[in-house]
Write a structure and sequence with these properties.
heterodimer, A: 492 residues, mainly alpha, two-stranded antiparallel ribbon, two-stranded antiparallel sheet, 27 helices, 4 strands, 2% strand, B: alpha/beta, Alkaline Phosphatase, subunit A, 2 domains, 9-stranded mixed sheet, 3-stranded antiparallel sheet, globular
Chain lengths: 492, 412
């Protein structure tokens, strides 16, 4: 092999690796990584603060209390307004508010004034309400981490685990971002067992899957309130988070596990002190021993649940389930069976060490030889386009979130606890819609040389058809839209 | 709390933007005139021969065959004079021409002689005599040189932010304000078509999704199933393009018409790259020209009394091949038309040093030969309408253009 063709092969692997395992290349990165693409990805795992934020954002408890206060104040204001109106009506009979409804027109302001509000001027639209602002801040920190990461392999792992252990901002907006930072990020390169414990005991998950309402039928609270079990968290932990569906557990296992988890709840966010934080409430906990998957768990209070989770995290079915999902997410909709075997083996051999599992993903040849057929999910595709053009600083997070939502993947709002689907079938029908998003994105970005950008983004992966299509574009903006819609950029 | 689902409007807001100068031109004001100037950049290379056809040229019909506009065709072209006729999609421009409020400059081109859109657009907008990176455009540099006669910003001292993507023609040191039309513009049919072509060569699955989508789009546009189709796939229909062009240009005029509003503005309208099924008399180009014609009518109507002080200049990066290509379209060429409209013009004229259409007359045997430098026209308008200084025009606005004298007598 000539030195030249070796260099091309290195660049191909670098480009493939950056798209498949990271958020896509930035300028010059393909060449820089060509000598040792696998080494560069492995090194991404060794960054001291990998997966962590420096961002100064509120904890889930702080955020939940702030939103609770906000909502309480708004309710009070509405009641006050209603009260005042009733007083006025009682005093004056029917009121005439015309002068308030129709303020005199602003002098000489016509189209110019409208213009200013439309363009994010300093005196632009009012800031969004607190809950939405919290979400925007969290989303921005998350997106910035993806677009500014060196390679982004660890951020991709964060996104993967966040989707695997999803909650929904539709149900608990205050904690969507904090949950990911508190329960997911610290453990993406740690042990799966620790990740599982952090997730299932996080107030966001306990609220999302209704465990805060669950109480043992024979618990003190259950007897007093004549209420009982909610199985949701127990079932989804078995079916989605650990063993996987049809892996052999029974309804009896679900019920027992749900009993085990009773008492895992939160302090209502309207409590000013520790509202929104986790608490084990013994009064809710079903007394007595439980049998889950044939194993006997004595009633040790909260430790009973810890023990079941620890066993689930080490179960071979869990290793298989996680290996399958990881391989499907990163490599192919139908991943090479040999790769799944390797990942599951590492998972089992290392006691669920996720950093070692990630290393196996990179070092396995199957991860590199699979065809580039995986259709990037919308948010990953958007992040890749932003990174490549360096446009992340110029485009506010609002339109980015809107674009994600328009493509069917609104941030932290999956329709169900199984998260967003990870196969082509789920996303391919949205491709025509991506053209509009690409068009709009391109209209906001200044590109000096679309062909140079094409080389930066795809290197030797670019086909001659794509190069020609981009080169012949009518405008630079159209060239950019075509570039990010090229099959090589959509797939990895 | 529920974030509402974003509408297409929110998603796509911001394409096509007006940029306007925040001052008044002092010298012109001192003469008792209050000139308005709007530059419209037509990106994609407008087919000048399809816009203004040389119906009096004996080689015309032979050159373009069925695609040649004529005065007695199925859709007759609109007569401008004994030699030239306007595309029938542009009755408003025709009316302005007859009222001496429009000028056509034909066989006109920038100094650019290659055929790359990107480089051609850069030269058109930068005003530089060669392809070179530039951070500023000729319009902005012209404004920098004009003595400001007072700030037009009704809010006084506030500095306007410029949107993220200012067209190059308006970029530069002169302070500009920005405005984006409210109407949204989905990706054009042209962009969709280019992708479909690419996918057909390289990714059958993606191609089939786009094809299915276009089919749905066609059904929707025919009216059936309209109830069920909440989300419109495919590109914008002709009505959307029309509405978009009109809103962009019409609102620009509303700004410029304000007594306290800006006097100089610029915007860009894309979509003129007609390689396939050009549709000169009926079809794509006809629809685009119709949309542009509506936009000019919207400018006139929204300018109100200020129309008499107005010049609108429309220019494109280069023209298209003289011959029709193998796919009923035209490829990148050289000379084309520049259009001027507005009540301040000494109009009703086609200005052309006609090069002829015989093979030997064509530039490199394929394109309409450029005989008028676009800079002559633009310099003429900047000089006589805005009172830009000759020397500044030759050195700063269009650097190295001292030999290219401003065309006199364009403005009444």
């Amino acid at each position: 092999m000539t030195a030249n063709s070796k260099a091309v092969l290195g660049q191909e692997a670098a480009a493939l690796g950056l798209h498949r395992f990271g958020f896509g290349p930035v300028g010059g990165q393909i060449a820089a990584l060509a000598a040792d693409p696998r080494g560069a990805l492995l090194a991404d795992l060794d960054r001291p603060s990998a997966g962590q934020f420096a961002a100064n954002l509120p904890s889930s408890g702080e955020s939940a209390r702030a939103v609770s206060d906000f909502q309480a104040e708004r309710t009070a204001q509405q009641k006050l307004a209603l009260r005042a109106q009733k007083l006025v009506e009682a005093d004056n009979g029917p009121t005439n508010f015309d002068c308030k409804k129709d303020p005199p027109a602003a002098p000489c302001a016509a189209p110019a004034a409208q213009n200013e509000t439309a363009n994010q001027q300093p005196k632009g639209p009012a800031p969004p309400p607190l809950p939405q602002q919290l979400l925007l801040d969290e989303a921005k920190a998350r997106f910035d981490a993806a677009t500014t990461a060196n390679i982004g392999f660890v951020e991709r792992l964060v996104w993967f685990w966040s989707n695997h252990f999803c909650i929904s901002a539709d149900k608990i907006v205050a904690m969507a971002g904090p949950y990911e930072r508190e329960a997911i990020r610290p453990h993406v390169l740690g042990r799966f067992g620790d990740l599982l414990q952090a997730v299932e005991s996080h107030p966001a998950m306990l609220f999302y899957l209704d465990n805060v309402e669950s109480m043992g039928a024979e618990s003190i609270a259950g007897i007093n309130r004549d209420k009982g079990l909610n199985e949701n968290l127990a079932r989804e932990t078995l079916e989605l988070h650990t063993l996987g569906v049809r892996s052999g557990y029974t309804q009896a296992d679900v019920t027992s596990f749900a009993n085990v988890l009773t008492g895992w709840t939160w302090i209502n966010p309207d409590q000013p002190d520790r509202g929104g934080e986790f608490i084990f409430n013994k009064r809710l906990h079903e007394p007595g021993d439980q049998i889950v998957l044939g194993k006997h768990y004595p009633d040790t209070g909260m430790a009973q649940g810890r023990a079941v989770l620890a066993d689930l995290s080490r179960h071979p079915a869990t290793a298989q389930h996680i290996a399958q999902k990881l391989a499907q997410h990163f490599v192919a909709d139908e991943p090479p069976p040999a790769l799944v075997v390797k990942l599951a083996k590492t998972f089992n051999d290392t006691g669920g060490n996720l950093k070692e599992v990630a290393k196996t993903l990179i070092t396995a040849d199957e991860s590199w030889t699979a065809q580039r057929q995986k259709l990037k999910p919308p948010a990953e595709w958007i992040a890749g386009a932003l990174r490549l053009t360096g446009a992340q600083a110029a485009i506010p997070i609002g339109p980015i979130m809107n674009a994600q939502a328009a493509l069917g993947e609104p941030l932290w709002r999956p329709p169900a606890p199984n998260g967003y689907a990870d196969t082509e079938a789920a996303w391919i029908d949205g491709v025509p819609r991506r053209i509009d998003i690409a068009n709009q994105f391109a209209a906001r970005v200044r590109v000096a040389d679309p062909l140079a950008l094409l080389d930066s983004g795809l290197g030797p992966l670019v086909s001659s058809d794509t190069r020609q299509t981009v080169a012949r574009a009518e405008t630079r903006n159209q060239a950019l839209a075509l570039l990010v819609m090229a099959p090589e950029f959509l797939r990895r | 709390m529920n974030l509402h689902a974003p509408s297409r409007r929110e998603l796509l807001l911001g394409s096509g933007t007006l940029f306007a100068w925040a001052y008044l031109p002092k010298l012109a004001l001192a003469e008792g005139r209050d000139p308005r100037f709007l530059a419209i950049i037509l990106r994609g290379a407008l087919d000048g021969l399809a816009t203004v056809a040389p119906v009096g040229d004996p080689d015309w019909v032979a050159l373009r065959g069925d695609n040649a506009l004529t005065l007695d065709g199925k859709t007759p072209a609109l007569k401008l004079n004994d030699f030239f006729a306007l595309n029938p999609a542009m009755p408003n421009l025709h009316r302005m021409f007859q009222a001496n409020e429009a000028i056509v400059v034909h066989a006109c081109a920038t100094p650019y002689r290659e055929r790359s859109h990107f480089d051609g657009q850069d030269m058109l907008e930068s005003g530089l005599p060669k392809t070179a990176p530039s951070d500023s455009g000729w319009l902005n540099r012209a404004l920098t040189s004009l003595a400001p006669g007072g700030r037009v910003d009704p809010k006084g001292s506030r500095v306007f932010a410029v949107g993220p993507v200012t067209p190059l023609v308006a970029r530069g040191p002169a302070p500009v304000l920005s405005w984006s039309p409210q109407r949204i513009m989905p990706a054009s049919d042209d962009t969709v078509a280019r992708l479909l072509e690419l996918y057909r060569h390289s990714d059958a699955k993606l191609a089939s999704v786009l094809e299915d989508n276009s089919r749905l789009s066609a059904i929707e546009q025919s009216g059936d199933m309209a109830q069920n189709m909440t989300q419109k796939p495919g590109g914008p229909g002709p009505a959307q393009v029309r509405a978009y062009f009109s809103e962009a240009a019409g609102n620009a005029a509303k700004f410029l018409a304000q007594p306290e509003g800006p006097r100089v503005g610029a915007l860009a309208l894309d979509g003129w790259d007609t390689h396939v099924n050009e549709g000169i008399a009926m079809g794509r180009l006809s629809q685009l020209l119709g949309a542009l014609d509506d936009a000019l009518a919207a400018v006139q109507s929204n300018m109100g009394p200020a129309w008499k002080d107005t010049v609108v200049a429309l220019a494109t990066e280069f023209g298209r091949t003289a011959h029709i290509n193998g796919t009923d379209g035209t490829d990148h060429g050289t000379a084309t038309v520049a259009l001027l409209a507005g009540g301040a013009l000494k109009g009703g004229r086609v200005i052309a040093d006609w090069p002829g259409l015989k093979s030997a007359d064509l530039y490199e045997n394929r394109d309409l030969k450029p005989t008028t430098d676009l800079r002559v026209v633009l310099k003429g308008v900047l000089k006589d309408h805005l009172r830009a200084d000759d020397r500044v025009l030759a050195q700063n606005v269009f650097p190295g253009s001292a030999e290219v004298k401003p065309m006199a007598g364009l403005v009444a």
